Amino acid sequence: MELDQATKVWIVDKHVEKNVENLQSCTQIVDAAALLRSGEVVAFPTETVYGLGANALSDESVEKIFLAKGRPSDNPLIVHIGERNQLPTVARHIPEKGNRLMEAFWPGPLTIILPKTDQVASLVTAGLDSVGVRMPDHKIALALLKEADVPIAAPSANRSGRPSPTTAAHVLADLDGRIAGVLDGGPTGVGVESTVIDVTVDPPIILRPGGVTREELEAVIGHVELDPSFEVGAVETPRAPGMKYTHYAPEGEMWLVTGEADKVRRQQADMLREAKRNGLRTGVLATEESADFWGGFAEADVVLSVGSTARLDEVAQQLYAALRQFDEEKVQYIVSETFSREGLGMAVMNRLEKAAGGRVLSV
Q1: In the 8-state DSSP scheme, what is residue 116?
Q2: I need a labelling partner for 86 at 20 to 30 A (CA). Which of 71, 255, 287, 335 fits?
């Protein structure tokens, strides 16, 4: 595969969405779908982040995802479908709890681990007997998937380890010249990736927290377990994306500090002072509640607020863009606020811990 190809950009703005009766007939969608069917890789928006898609039934096509991203091949991919009738192509059996979750949350930010068929490319599942499947809740993504008429394997459309992309500009910053095209549908909504739940076991296990919370899942199917990989520093064979390796990371060294609020603030301030003494450009990932304090702290060169602790949906939506902005500002050392693990906070904290590469200090 050539990694210096010209990357085509198709813009599907709100005007197009509102004025094309059948979005599948939009020339941008038709052209992008044709490239997918021909074996190329194309980035597209979903309600979570931008995905990098390839034909999930072709190892040759899926290999291009790994080459473009620089992604380890033992990290499985999620298969995206546009209609439920595509499921038998990728899943040989759907447990009863899986059906209930689909009825409740599809289309939406929920990936369900199912027993795979032999038609799924081996590179998609990293040698596992199961496959993660989801139906995104995004008009452009659904139109593309229906027009392509093949299941599409699609991890986030970024270089491996980098913060996930929530705009087409983020995709191009990482992958311009490495992929065939990108559908620009504007900023994404949820901001963090889908929740991944394994229903091949009982009780089901959350392998990655995301846009659907544990509480919402349990309201539909009862008790669900949390995978041991959520423990900081845990190393296991990955059964879903984001379970291994440093993910979502800015280029600067990032630290989380947990404990009593006053002690945390003093510790963060000491860490920033030390970093400045060492000649580093510093940053703080702040909240609305703490932004004024850090804005007046001389040793904090860049202070970015990701929203209020009372609105974790807002925090999730803005998190990756903030991490990328630290890179644009050439920040070398970052301290971050932490959040409650209730509801969507579990997904936010999971991403922050991955972004910090396990650098968590308790005081």
Answers
A1: B
A2: 71
164 is in an annotated binding site: yes
Give the pLDDT confidence of 262-310 residue by residue, as tens digits. Answer: 999 999 999 999 999 999 999 999 999 999 999 999 999 999 999 999 9
80 is an annotated ligand-binding site residue = yes
Q: How far apart are alpha carbons 87 and 106 in whole angstroms? A: 13
> If DSSP codes are grouped into helix, strand and coil, which group holds residue 363?
coil
The Cα–Cα gap between 195 and 121 comes to 22
Are the C-beta atoms of residues 101 and 218 closer than 8 Å to each other?
A: no
Residue corresponding to tokens 């929203």: 307
CA 272 – CA 53 distance, rounded (Å): 40
Same domain, 209 and 277: no
For residues 104 and 35, membership in a common domain is answered with: yes
Q: What is the pTM of this model?
A: 0.90
- For 102-125, what is each residue's pLDDT tens digit? 999 999 999 999 999 999 999 999
Q: What is the span of the domain harbouring residue 284?
A: 253-362
Q: Cis ω on the peptide bond leading into residue 107 (within 30° of 0)?
A: yes
Averaged pLDDT, 320-325 = 96
Task: Answer yes or no: do 200 and 272 share one domain.
Answer: no
Q: How confident is the model at residue 239 (pLDDT cuts 50, 70, 90)?
A: low
Q: Are residue 92 and residue 224 in the same domain, yes or no? A: yes
Q: What pLDDT does residue 1 have?
A: 40
154 is in an annotated binding site: yes
75 labelled as ligand-binding?
A: yes
> In this structure, what CATH number is given to the domain that contains residue 34?
3.90.870.10
- Residue 6, pLDDT score: 80
Q: Is 156 annotated as a binding residue?
A: yes
37 is in an annotated binding site: no
Torsion of CA 98, 156, 36, 81, to 10 degrees: 10
- Report how many domains make up the chain: 2
Say how many C-beta atoms besides its own lie within 10 A of residue 21's C-beta: 5
| Arithmetic mean of pLDDT over the chain | 92
